[in-house]
């Protein structure tokens, strides 16, 4: 029996306010929030789910409510929540891309490990990288 066909089609990101975070990434990436759902009965107003569909080859970004969200610390520190993954976004002009990201609500990380990469935090505190 051969390997079954497996296709990566989405990355799902937990967030304290998924609709707001989807809006941030839509503005950052020049995409549209293609699907969004309001909180289920009994959930707080910031709950819900949203998706930014792929604009071609690639995958969608999903954002789902995480009731017990705690922003990761980057770089990692002992006994603190840490990022187990992050998004890498290729850019053609690093300075312009950083300025755009900050204008959309991102924060530049204090620690920058490489000259051709910039680490930023989205409004929920997830780190992401812009790179040449």
TrEMBL record:
It comes from the Bacteria. Residues 7-132 form the VOC domain. InterPro entries: Glyas_Bleomycin-R_OHBP_Dase, Glyoxalase_6, VOC_core. Pfam families: Glyoxalase_6 (PF18029). This is Glyoxalase. It comes from Glycomyces algeriensis.
